[in-house]
Structure formats: structure tokens, C-alpha cells
Amino acid sequence: MKFFDRLKEGLAKTKKGLVEKVETLFTGRKIDEEALGELEEILISADVGTKAVGEIMITLREKARRGEVKDAESLKDALKKEMVLILGQSHPLVIQGNRPFVILAVGVNGVGKTTTIGKLANRFRLQGLSVLLAAGDTFRAAGIEQLEIWADRAKAQFVRHKSGSDPAAVAFDAIEAARHREIDVVIIDTAGRLHTKSPLMEELKKVKRVIEKAMPGAPQEILLVVDATTGQNALRQADTFNQAAGVTGIALTKLDGTARGGIVFAIKKDLGIPVRLIGIGEGLDDLRDFNPEEFVEALFS
How far is CA 148 from the centre of its chain? Predict the structure, then answer.
């Protein structure tokens, strides 16, 4: 199955809660203020986010006033166009500049962070890049072992310390090892931490400082892994991690199991952080670059 078809399949729940509702409610109906008010409620319930919804509705109301939006089909076309405009251009994760290129992966527990790291490592190796994974989640012995399994699968090198070690020391040693071995990409795992726990956020700041000291200009990417099924909570996580570490990109996982795929619009509009990657399954190739036009097209197809 082609990726676009898998994306369409993965977005089925989001489509049902958004596009299909628009089709059902507005077919054969005049697009007046009452109808637009109902559309606004549909968008908010689909986790599109209040800022994004506000911007969309201003445009749609103006188009309705001018007679450009007058039925379900023209409403869908206008909505689709506005969604693409909100998401803007594609911002893939590109490995460039000084080597090693250091990626610091962050996020709360259970979002699929370690799996995402493994899939990324596999992707970079297939591109001909050398990769080193660093087990910075030293709180969980199982987390270290899981990452090591992924390193083996992706044919990546691996740096670990014993369980309970200082995560910042792991990050430092990984960068030193990567320099010595002329590695292209270093991906540093971190312990899953609740965004509400200040001490853990302080530790994350320390890891980042140590990376910067080990290699000025690094980490070049601070990748926040977010579970799409958490809806608006994902927005709060992104905001908190961004304040603590300065998130440069987002990997949105589990899009295939949620009706809350609209969260991509809220993340972009509220925080301005690009969604770089999306996950729509468990396979090694189910983590792909986020393409806004393709995403919206799949949603409306």
C-alpha cells in the first residue's frame, strides 16, 4: 500500500470527526451564520485549536458574505484551502552542517519516543549516514535495553552507561565518541518526563547545556515526540517543553489511532513549531516527513 493510502486510512477517525461531519450537516443547506457557527464547533471539537479556528472562520465568513461559499462543496473547498495555508510549507528534518548532527529527543512517557528514535536511525542509515544512539534515559533499565535493540535493528552504534547514571554524562560521552569515530548523526534519548514536573525539566536543561559545552552549536535539533491521541494536552506539552528546552521540531505519533489529528493545526498556529514527522503505524517505514498539502488532501479524500 502506498504511503498516501496508508495516510488516508490512518486519518479515517479524524476525517469522520471533521470532514464527514461537514458533509453530513451542510449538504443541501444554506451556508448562513447559524451553519458557520456549527462549523466552528466541529472544528474546535476536532482539536484544531481556538487560534487556528478563529483564523479559518474569519476567512470563511467573509467568503460566505461575498457569495463564494454557498453550499457544502464550496465550504469544503474553502476549508481545505485555509487548512493548507495555516500549515504552511513542509519543514522536513534535514541533516546538514557540522558533524555530528545532534538530535535531542524529548517527550512525556508513553508517546513512542524510543520507537521514533529507532525508526529515525533506520531512515538515516538507509540514506547512507552513520548513526550513533545514546541511551540518555538512565532511569529505566528496560528503556536502555529497548534502545539497544533498536540500535541493532538499524545497524547504528550505541552508547550507554549503567542504569541510574547521569544522563548528561551519557550525552557528553556520546558526542565525544561520535567525533572520534566520525559519526554523521547522534540521537540522544531522554527519560520520559511529565511536563508538569519541574525537577525533571531542570535536568533536561542540564543535558542541553552539557551538549552545548561538548559541541558548540549542538544540539542542532530538539525533537519533541508527541502522541496525537492526547489532543489539546499535546499542545500543553509542546508549550512546556519549548519553554524548557527550545523545541525546534515535532514528531507526531499514533495518528492512525485517533480522531484528534486536527492537533497539527493547533500546534502550528499556537506555537509556530513545525511538525517535521508523522507516524501512522508500527512499521519501520511508517515514520515519514510531514507534508501539509498531502496531509490535508488525505483528510479530505
Answer: 23
pLDDT at 88: 92
Residue-level pLDDT at 297: 92
Which residues of the chain form beta strands (DSSP E)?
Answer: 101-106, 131-134, 157-159, 185-188, 221-227, 249-253, 275-279, 287-289
| Cβ-based neighbours of 96, under 8 Å, separated by 6 or more | none
Q: In the prediction, which pLDDT does 78 show?
A: 95
Q: Which domains, and CATH codes, for the chain?
A: 3-87 (1.20.120.140), 101-291 (3.40.50.300)
pLDDT in the model for residue 231:
81
The verdict on whether omega for the bond into residue 274 sits within 30 degrees of 0, i.e. cis, is no
SS (H, E, C) 170-194: HHHHHHHHHHHHCCCEEEECCCCCC
Query: Can you give the pTM of this predicted structure?
Result: 0.92
User: Which regions in the chain score pLDDT beneath 50?
Assistant: none
Cβ 14 vs Cβ 259: under 8 Å: yes
C-beta pairs of 218-221 under 8 Å, 24+ apart in sequence: 218/100, 218/102, 218/175, 219/102, 219/103, 219/104, 219/188, 220/97, 220/101, 220/102, 220/103, 220/248, 221/93, 221/101, 221/102, 221/103, 221/104, 221/248, 221/249
Side chain identity at residue 81, one-letter code? K
Tens digit of each residue's pLDDT (9 = 90 or more) over 258-291: 777 888 999 999 889 999 999 887 777 788 999 9
Q: Which amino acid is residue 244, in one-letter code? A: A
- The pLDDT score that the predictor gives to residue 1 is 61
In 3D, which of 269, 289, 286 has the Cα closest to residue 91?
289
- DSSP lists the bridge partners of residue 221 as 103
- Residue 287 main-chain phi, psi, to 5 deg: -110, 115
Look at the alpha carbons of 136, 141, 145, 150 in this order and tell me if their dihedral is positive or negative: negative
